[in-house]
Write a structure and sequence with these properties.
disordered N terminus; 73% helix; DNA-binding; mainly alpha; Arc Repressor Mutant, subunit A; 2 domains; homodimer; Tetracycline Repressor, domain 2; globular
DNA sequence: CCATGATTCGACAGTAACTCTCAATCACCA
DNA sequence: TGGTGATTGAGAGTTACTGTCGAATCATGG
């Protein structure tokens, strides 16, 4: 695999490099503090101290406290992956593939963070809220892709409902994963979820 | 119809009556202020003033500002309706019926509020977040009902995913309704959404 | 190598949502 | 009517977040 990393190759100036470093420092500080104190008990001031920046800088990098936790850099990757799938593949298979890629990357790069994040998604309402926002955003991406694939208008009620229902289902997978401490089989969970989304509920009664 | 109103019949004491009045006053004040100033510009203090209570009282009645906007009293009604449907009805029909009842009630009782609420759902992130929370809660109700109906465990991944995906789809209907100023045909929108959720996307290609 | 212009940073002040506490008031019941 | 427990109001405190303003830092052209 030829460099499957989040971002860019352009020769990045010193300024940019510093920015990335601060960004990372803030996120690392946040994760560490949350691990040992919990989310609410962790204040922006503490984060700033630990990351060796001023509180104002923290806000310059992340609009809200929740964003420090949930922001990641996979969206462009996902989008690319989404567009790269063959035209005749069913949406479920496309999603299966895309989700698998995203999960693999995320789990490989920073496994504890991935877990912590999904745990916070169940435990802290504010974080959950922010996650749903970003889920809705991804839903909009998804419906663009599905529009091309299905020939439906991207803003038709049908497509919108469909995309959001898929995202809702996938979000539930994350919660389920966090609640029932399953280990590495998130991907299996995703597969099962996509089966449900594709074929509907397999009820006991016919 | 014999009194299809949110709540109770027991002879309510003066204390209870006052509580209900204050609650209503706070909500009314909030809606009025938001109509004329917008959500963010409206502070709790203003709401308290207008409702002729103290700010602390406002917080006593509603945990957050968003709750003042989105709280309603239909959940018990919905739940009852959900359980009352015949056993052999398909989940889609059950939902169709329940949603229709809820919408009819809500639109009949306070049409402007219903519209405003769904508008705020698109415009104000915090409100949207709170709506999704309550949507998730309703999703849990839904999956209880679906569990009885389908024979699946209420906390099985499959059922959870299914319920949340349905709720996601329905939430999108509300957003769609708010964005495209459709008039009275929310119910038609719901019908179309449920068709999608039941049968999947009707794509252009076979 | 230095001046210039653009960013970025830290410090500070301000707002508003929420929390807690305590004393005063009020509805209910004997 | 007097006691009692619930409800309220006032106030002070915490914290996330916003805006502004010089100072410091850095990329760039001469």
């Amino acid at each position: 695999m030829a460099s499957v990393t989040p971002a860019e190759q352009p020769p990045l100036g010193l300024r940019e490099r510093k920015k990335i470093k601060t960004r990372k420092a803030i996120r690392a500080a946040t994760y560490a503090l949350i691990e040992q104190q919990g989310y609410d008990a962790t204040t922006i001031e503490q984060i700033a101290d630990r990351a060796e920046v001023s509180p104002s800088t923290v806000f310059r990098y992340f609009p809200t406290k929740e964003d420090i936790v949930i922001t990641d850099e996979w969206d462009p990757v996902i989008l690319a992956e989404l567009r790269a799938r063959p035209d005749d593949e069913s949406w479920a298979d496309v999603l299966r593939h895309v989700m698998r890629t995203a999960l693999d990357l995320s789990l490989a790069e920073e496994p504890e963070v991935t877990r912590l994040r999904s745990r916070l998604g169940v435990e802290v309402p504010a974080v959950r809220a922010r996650m749903m926002e970003s889920m809705a955003a991804t839903g909009r991406l998804l419906r663009e892709a599905l529009a091309e694939r299905s020939g439906l208008a991207p803003d038709s009620l049908e497509l919108r409902v469909f995309a959001m229902s898929v995202m809702g289902g996938l979000m539930e997978v994350s919660h389920y994963w966090a609640e029932t401490g399953h280990r590495d089989d998130v991907r299996e969970l995703v597969d099962r979820a996509l089966d449900v989304l594709e074929h509907g509920l397999a009820t006991g009664k016919p």
